[in-house]
Amino acid sequence: MREDFCERVEQLIIANKELKFQNEEKDKKVAELISTNKAQGEFFVNISHEIKTPLNVIFSTAQLFDMYCKNGLLNDKKASVVKYIAAIKQNSYRLSKLINNIVDISKIEAGFFKLNLSNNNIVKVVEEIVMSVTTLTDSKGLNIIFDTDTEEKIIACDTEKIERIVLNLLSNAIKFSDEGDEIIVDIKDKNEFVDISVKDNGIGIEKEHLDMIFDRFKQVDKSLSRNTEGTGVGLNLVKSIVELHGGSIYVESEFGKGSKFTVKLPSKKVLKENMMYSSNARSEDENIRVEFSDIDL
Ligand code: ADP
């Protein structure tokens, strides 16, 4: 009788512990959900701001043109009209970039984002991307250097997506650098992997922000954007695309001295290629203008 009672008490203690554990887990999940919800809310507020800013520029320029037309001033104002058309284009590119990024992130989350893998010389792919932005970096007084320890390294990759990755890292390096600064794009053959790094000697990133810059919902913290335009989704997208390639990305940075982002891609090849790489197939200029749309060049 007494043994039964003791056994029952023991069972109750175990059940109680289990319940306590379950409750703690539930509390943790609720706290996580509240935090994610809050971050998502802030993210959408930020996105809305990013949509409204270029839209306002486009809309007010259209109104100005309307007024010029009505007052017969179009010819007299030709010089400023040309300038405003450039602003409309730049802001349309900004909107395109934002929409592309949101669509891609949603596709990745839903598992619909597919890579068109083919075997390519990654050295040539990256070098061509770097060369295609030199006119723009020259105009900002930035020195861009391409370096590699190998001439050829054939790996399976989606060249269009590699372009998104490199252009995104370059656009950040440019955005956070000043006239006279240097950007080095370096390729290192590590046998099993190939390392592609983009290094700048710009403003750098504070230590406490380093862990979160790849997190989409956390990086919307305005202190991270330091008054530069941007949604904070770029690096999250870059990380996802790198991971879809079976690779990884990491950052080293010292506040005030500069940053270095390294993408590590596996040196594997595909037997069945989805698409052949053709440097002519890219609408180079258009892609660069979209990716660099939030930089004043
Ligand atoms: P955004 O589109 O807002 O630039 P990213 O995801 O590309 O978003 O970058 C997130 C944040 O990480 C930036 O707002 C910036 O604070 C920081 N960052 C990224 N790259 C650099 C860099 N090269 N130098 C300094 N800060 C950087």
What is this structure's SSE topology?
Blueprint: H1 2-70, H2 78-110, E1 118-121, H3 122-132, H4 134-139, E2 143-148, E3 154-157, H5 159-175, E4 182-190, E5 193-200, H6 207-210, H7 222-225, H8 234-244, E6 248-254, E7 258-266, H9 284-291
Parallel strand pairs: 2-4
Antiparallel strand pairs: 1-3, 4-5, 5-7, 6-7
Helix pairs in contact: 1-2, 3-5, 5-8
The protein binds adenosine-5'-diphosphate.
What percent of residues are in strands? 15-25%
Supply the number of helical segments.
Answer: 9
Q: What is the residue-averaged pLDDT?
A: 87
Cα radius of gyration in angstroms: 25 Å
Oligomer: single chain
Query: Order of strands across the biggest sheet?
Result: 2-4-5-7-6
Shape: extended
Distance between the termini: 86 Å
Structural class label: alpha+beta
Structure description:
The protein is built from 9 helices and 7 strands, in the order ααβααββαββαααββα. By secondary structure, the chain is an alpha+beta fold. The strands form 2 sheets. A 5-stranded mixed beta sheet has the order 2-4-5-7-6. It has a two-stranded antiparallel sheet with strand order 1-3. Helix 1 (2-70) runs antiparallel to helix 2, helix 3 (122-132) crosses helix 5 (159-175) and helix 5 (159-175) runs antiparallel to helix 8. The structure holds adenosine-5'-diphosphate. Adenosine-5'-diphosphate (ADP) binds next to helix 5, helix 7 and helix 8. Adenosine-5'-diphosphate (ADP) binds at residues 172-173, 176, 200, 202-205, 213, 219, 224-226, 230-235, 259.
